[in-house]
From TrEMBL:
Signal peptide as annotated in the record: 1-20
Keyword tags: Signal
Domain of life of the organism encoding this protein: Eukaryota
Protein name, as recorded: Uncharacterized protein
Organism: Symbiodinium necroappetens
Length: 176
């Protein structure tokens, strides 16, 4: 019984507050009424529909999460250098990655069986040196826009590329 009274009391309070607002509007003098050229206020129903549609729609950040993330490309574990005609500096052959060592955010490679290092320097160029360093003065060789310069001389035929499966099979003596 008490629940019915409380519910009825709330209903009466809501009705009276609505009537009181209407009465206040009627008693307001005309000179206080301000005319505006604004668009009419949306109804409560259209507002509720807009809120509901917003809650049911997929948020913008969900598209970013749903898109497949690009897999970070791993650097090759081995490189092949070839084309150097000089026998004084043995740079032709296989270069293996030095795990855990990076210079300028790029991996460092070591010539198999030698103490030469191939790395990216601070200038963004590949260089060959006897030490792991990022300075732009590759003492043995440096790759410039025109090509490799090794021991102060241009080496147009010298190339460095990732090792392929065929190269790996040749080095292990496996024929396909």
């Amino acid at each position: 019984m008490a629940a019915q009274r409380r519910g009825g009391g709330l209903l009466w309070a809501a009705l009276l507050s609505g009537l009181a607002l209407n009465v206040l509007d009627l008693r307001r003098p005309a000179f206080l009424a301000v005319e505006t050229h604004q668009k009419p206020v949306q109804s409560r129903r259209s507002f509720a529909w807009a809120v509901g549609a917003g809650l049911l729609s997929e948020p913008a950040w969900a598209e970013e999460e749903a898109a497949p993330k690009k897999k970070k490309e791993r650097p090759p574990e081995t490189l092949i250098a070839e084309g150097l005609e000089s026998k004084a500096i043995p740079l032709n052959g296989r270069w293996s990655i030095v795990f855990g060592k990076k210079i300028a955010g790029k991996p460092v490679y070591k010539k198999d069986g030698e103490s030469y290092f191939l790395m990216t320097n601070d200038c963004g160029q590949l260089q060959i040196d006897t030490e792991k360093k990022a300075t732009c003065d590759g003492s043995i060789g440096i790759q410039k826009e025109s090509g490799w310069v090794i021991d102060g001389k241009a080496a147009a035929n010298f190339k460095v590329r990732p090792e392929t499966k065929e190269d790996a099979n040749k080095s292990q003596g496996i024929s396909a």
